Amino acid sequence: MMRLPPFRFRAPRTIEDAVAWLAESPTDTMLLAGGTDLIPNMKRRQQTPATVIALRGIDALKTTRNGRGFTIGAGVTLTQIVRDDRLRAACPGLWQAAAQVATPHLRNMGTLGGNLCLDTRCTYYDQSLEWRKAIDFCMKKDGRTCWVATSSPRCLAVSSTDTAPMLLALGARVRLVSTRGERNLDVGDLYQNDGMRYLTRQADELLTDIAVPDQTGWRSAYWKLRRRGSFDFPVASAAVAVRMDAGRVAEARLALGAVASRPLLSVRAREILAGQPLSDDTIAAAADAAYDIAKPMDNTDFELVWRKKMVKALVTAALREVRGDDVRELRLKIARQTLTGPGS
Predict the structure, then answer these.
(1) What is the DSSP string of 54-108?
(2) N or C: which terminal CB in the chain sees fewer CB atoms within 10 Å?
(3) Is the pLDDT of residue 337 over 90?
């Protein structure tokens, strides 16, 4: 049995108390939301904070407000997102992303903020302490070498969050709060392509909420590749959001997940789609552009060459879905689920 290391547990009731306690010793304090990622990591000694600040008692993090768009508290659970009919109707892609995270039990505990801040993953890192010790520790924890690419100067652990690529495609922003004040960032600016320092969130900052802009006129979809139809992390994913006008693409955003240490936004795909009808040729060209930026490494399930090829299939399927095609059979084949947006 793997046991937790000793730590100090603190349970604030307000955001102000949480950030004040976090500021006392930010470098050896970690935040606990649902705990579905942090607790297993602590048992494996991947993370050994001296203090854990639990956020579950902060009601201000658990609300969803809608007006022109949505403001979703970082403590809102993934289950709450899946059950929110307003969100499902306005942002079907976000609903699909949340619905495909892990299992119902884990979605009951896991939060949107926790999924956005999900630790990067790697075959050589997500192992027990004894396993990692036996091969010599990797760069991400206690070692000096990235075992994925031994000559790499940086860690290549992969970003495996489902909601981040979709929120990136939706043009969402996040709010970070500390005793120094607050920062509002585009979701894309929350990440950097480094498996160890994958977040730009500072150690004394708390992610409090996510603002999704008005999605009127937008269509969105999220497609995910994994070995099993539930529980597994993505090994490649595609998130698309498209706004049509008179049968042509007025605006589009296309993001990829699990093919780098951060979610990737394809600028070239956006340029290809802009002003064009969603024809098969246009979709194929956008899928090719997404394929070009995908850089999967040999550090998770399936062979990296096949994962990269599957990026085209995922992007194509997502764009066909926002076009209005009936892709239920294809989704069952690829994603092993029958997720559809409202009205499908």
Answers:
(1) E-TT-GGGS-EEEESEEEEETT-BHHHHHH-HHHHHH-HHHHHHHHTSS-HHHHH
(2) N
(3) no
Alpha helices in 162-301, H assignment, sequence order: 163-169, 267-273, 280-293
Mutual orientation of helices 304-323 and 280-293 as an angle, nearest 10°?
Answer: 150
* CA 243 to chain CA mean position, Å: 22
Residue with tokens 């040999």: 298
Q: What are phi and psi of 189, to 5 degrees?
A: -80, -5
Q: How many residues does the chain have?
A: 344
Residue with structure tokens 């006392």?
Answer: 24
- Cα 78 to Cα 61: distance, rounded to the nearest angstrom: 13
Record the tokens describing residue 300, joined without a space.
């998770």
Neighbours of 90 (CB within 10 A): 21
Burial class (CB in 10 A: 0-12, 13-18, 19+), 5: exposed
Q: Which residues contact 137 (CB under 8 A, 6 or more apart)?
A: 143
Helix (H) or strand (E) holding 334: helix 328-334
List, in order of start, the domains of the chain with CATH numbers: 220-334 (3.30.390.50)
Write the pLDDT tens digit of every residue in 25-81. Answer: 999 999 999 999 999 999 999 999 999 999 999 999 999 998 889 999 999 999 999
pTM of the model: 0.96
